Amino acid sequence: MRRPSPKTAAHRAAPVAPLWTILVPLAALGFVAAVMLALPDGVSVWLVPVAVPLLLATVFAAVHHAETIAHRLGDPYGAILLALAVTIIEVALIVSVLLSAPPGESEIARDTVFAAIMIVLNGIVGLSLLVGGIRHHEQGFQARGAAGALAVLGTVAVLALVLPNYTLAVPGPVYAPPQLVFVAVTSLALYGLFLFVQMVRHRDDFRDIRPEDDAPGHAGPPPDRRTMTAALVLLPLALLAVVGLAESLAPTVEHAVARAGLPAALVGVTIAMTVLLPEGTAALRAARANRIQTSLNLALGSALASICLTIPTVAVLSVLMGQPLILGLEPEHVVLLVLSLFMATLSLAMGRTTILQGGVHLVIFGAFLTLAAMP
């Protein structure tokens, strides 16, 4: 009888993923199921100390599986997959909030999308540039890819979140149904065009400019097929657990915001922050490992997916339900959006980053959080 070689035996015995990255999402899903059955109104205050650490652990499990997939697929495919997965679940969460809300005008979609853009452009990008600059002084990336992403993001953001304030067909910061359909179709078309450029026509503009063997964050050979398959299965489970925990915590957050007398827009900020935790953590780890191209692909890709997929979804829902959809931002938020897009263009135009750009973006992010709490 022929014995398997030590290499083959070791390959068969090697785990497809660290045990904790499997057990934590399963425990989180079990916790969410128990809360849904026993506490239909959401997580009680006394369960928050359990839910929050479980949420954070699940986020790190999702990041591990996302990085496994990104290592196997390479840039920019891994970043695209994570952005799409997270955004689809973000859209599902927003839609569930819209469907459960009382009839009338709803601002949750606008608040969440705007918060996602601000978190990405100023929070995630700012921290990535600062962390990468502190550790590596100066980092290089493909400016053409970043410029293309910012062009699409700026166009869709202004069409969806600024222009409704100035239309005359319907009074208020809302679009008439034909206008809303146009913006939805345009958003999808531009996102599809961007993906075609990123994955087919000009994919070199989104790849790391350094040699492959100079990427410390991707040391070692790519994962095998078993590990890749496990990551593809476990990543959606982990992301689903993250959103399930966030949805369970949402009523507690809403009550806390109301009791503190804070603006309701903070609920959208909380949703966006929770959903973007996996991508934000992965982007920071990539920047620290001197893979700023991967970090920017993750950050800008998540912002694009968020607005380009969320707006069409809520637009269709609004038209079908006959429910007005508030999209136009308040004047102070318009100023912050324009400032963020302008500074992001300046920061990413030269293909080199330092801690200065990171500090500037973090100041804008601080202004966003301050105005969100005290308009």
In words, what does this structure look like?
Helix 5 (108-136) packs parallel to helix 9 (265-288). The protein has a two-stranded antiparallel ribbon with strand order 1-2. It has helices at 6-13, 19-38, 48-73, 77-100, 108-136, 143-161, 177-201, 225-259, 265-288, 292-321, 331-347, 355-373, and strands at 139-140, 352-353. It has 12 helices and 2 strands; from the N terminus they run H-H-H-H-H-E-H-H-H-H-H-H-E-H. By secondary structure, the chain is mainly α. Helices cover 74% and strands 1% of the residues. It has one domain. The model is unreliable at 6-11 and 211-219 (pLDDT under 50). The relative contact order is 0.21.
Descriptive tags:
single chain, 375 residues, mainly alpha, two-stranded antiparallel sheet
Trace the largest sheet across and list its strands: 1-2
Strand content is under 5%
The number of distinct helices, counting runs of at least 4 residues, comes to 12
The proportion of residues forming helix, as a percent range, comes to over 70%
What are the SSEs and their pairings?
Blueprint (H helix, E strand, L loop, with lengths): L5 H8 L5 H20 L9 H26 L3 H24 L7 H29 L2 E2 L2 H19 L15 H25 L23 H35 L5 H24 L3 H30 L9 H17 L4 E2 L1 H19 L2
Antiparallel strand pairs: 1-2
What's the short story on this structure?
This protein is mostly helical. The protein has one domain (18-373).
